[in-house]
Amino acid sequence: QVQLVESGGGLVQAGGSLRLSCAASGRSLSSYAMGWFRQYPGMEREFVAGIMWGGVDTFYADPVKGRFTVSRDDARNTAYLQMNSLKPEDTAVYYCAATYGIVSRETTAYRYWGQGTQVTVSS
Question: What is the rounded distance in angstroms from the CA atom of residue 72 to the CA atom of residue 77?
Fold first, then answer.
């Protein structure tokens, strides 16, 4: 079992930055691909970014390309999502997820999920 806990969410003005962390316990994350998703009220979770084991291959949804950066520190058993140039439309609950496979844009591919952290961007 892998337990994931997100942190780092909060309220920020448009144009600002936040860094989300996803700390894992139970097992090493080094063999897992990690994904970040977000969810708007009443909507399905959508893929934001992902990073493969090894940390070399990263993937981004078009709306966040060039603004968000996904990374991982397997020594700390933690994944990160650096969010810059935030926009009001980035306001959502953000989730990290782990899969013992490859990065996928589908939520069904991920076995383990965190509880989510709220990001609110004011205009």
Answer: 8
- Contact between 6 and 117 (Cβ < 8 Å): yes
Look at residue 54 in the predicted model and tell me its pLDDT.
Answer: 86
Q: pLDDT tens-digit profile of 10-47? A: 999 999 999 999 999 999 999 999 999 999 999 999 99
Q: Which amino acid is at 26?
A: G
What is the 3-class SS of the chain, one letter each residue? CCEEEEECCEEEECCCCEEEEEEEECCCHHHCEEEEEEECCCCCCEEEEEECCCCCCEEECHHHCCCEEEEEECCCCEEEEEECCCCHHHCEEEEEEEECCCCCCCHHHCCEECCCEEEEEEC
Return d(Cα 27, Cα 9) in angstroms, integer.
24
According to DSSP, the β-strands at 33-39 and 10-13 are unpaired
Kind of pairing, strands 46-51 and 78-83? unpaired
